[in-house]
Amino acid sequence: MHAFLDAIESFGGQLAHVHWMPLGIAVLFHLAQTAVAARAWRNIVAAAYPDRRVPWLGLYAAYLAGVGVNAVIPARGGDVVRLYIARRRVRGSTYTTLASTIAAVTVFDFFAALALVAWAVSTGALPGLQVLPDLPDFDFGWAFRHPRLALAIAGAVAVALTIAGVWAARRIAEFKRRLAQGFAVFRDKGLYARSVASWQTLDWILRIATVYWFLRAFGIPATVHNALLVQVCSSLSTVFPFSPGGIGTEQALTLYVLAGEAKRSALLAFSVGQHVTLTITNAALGFGAILVTLRTLHFRRAVDQEADAALAEQARP
After folding, report:
1. Structure pTM?
2. Beta-carbon count within 10 A of 15 CB
3. Which domain holds residue 42?
4. pLDDT exceeds 80 at position 76
5. CA quadruple 291, 293, 299, 301: dihedral, nearest 10
6. pLDDT tier at 166 (50, 70, 90 boundaries)?
7. Which three-class secondary structure state does DSSP give residue 248?
């Protein structure tokens, strides 16, 4: 926590030296990235429901809402909001299928992130396991300091998930059908390449471009190499989303991989400045999307109103 407060202080001290035009360009690239990512997800949903109308703007609003809530709430709480709005926009859709479409999106992201991490490891840019637990503000360093406990917890979670999967496979045929429906796009490799993989490739290019312009905005040497390293840190910080956006982990890794590129205070300002800027942008867009689609920012109230309307509809003769 102390390290994070130091980062905030460094960010405030470096604020006068921020280059605002590159910062604005970085935000524009980020906005383009959200639109492209939402398009890829929309195409996956459309493949799952080929006989339904799947509006891109409706799914884009759902995507923004999820990103906005995830920016301020840990443990992927925004995905619940994303699914709720998406189900309202696609008639006859189910939460199970929509949730599996989100999982389908992560297939490409997983391999893209894995390739970047493998590259970073091969170059020696990432810290070793003996260094990782001691990095300041590293969210899950306790797992490396207590490996037996971490393995026991991971094993228990794996067993629970396996039991749940076996139970669902044996007893809920409809659940399996709906789950598989979300991965329908993979049945046609050409369709997947054209309508999903191409958009997600552009998505990753825009992510790296966003980082590149943030580096320029905060006076850090802006190279493709450095942008790729920062993107690796961002990807790793989302593996265990214990904090909103993985701020602690991302900050610690960024300071390590960019050590020597600039002063520590400048790196802290960049790390926090990028995170704060994207958090504010995502939160503004996300809660704006919620307000437009649900006509309220009280998510629970909207859910209750829809439930009451459904009960009233069922009660009609």
Report:
1. 0.77
2. 11
3. 2-315
4. no
5. 100
6. low
7. helix
Query: CA 69 from chain center: how many Å?
Result: 11
Tokens (6 digits) for 162: 């396996």
Structure tokens at 272: 């926090």
Alpha-carbon span 303 to 310, nearest angstrom: 11
The H or E element containing residue 40 is helix 20-48
Tell me if 101 sits within 8 A of 117, measured CB to CB.
no
Query: If we measure between CA atoms, which residue out of 25, 60, 19, 74 comes closest to residue 217?
Result: 19
What does the alpha-carbon distance between residue 12 and residue 137 come to, in Å, rounded to a whole number?
A: 19
Q: Give pLDDT tens digits for 212-268.
A: 999 999 989 999 999 999 998 888 776 654 444 445 667 777 887 888 888 887 888
Residue type, position 275, single letter: H
| Alpha carbons 10 and 33: distance in angstroms, whole number | 28
Whole-angstrom distance, CA of residue 209 vs CA of residue 71: 20
3-state secondary structure 153-174: HHHHHHHHHHHHHHHHHHHCHH
52 within 8 A of 90, measured Cβ to Cβ: yes
Q: Report how many domains make up the chain.
A: 1
Spatial separation of the C-alpha atoms in residues 15 and 59, rounded to whole Å? 36
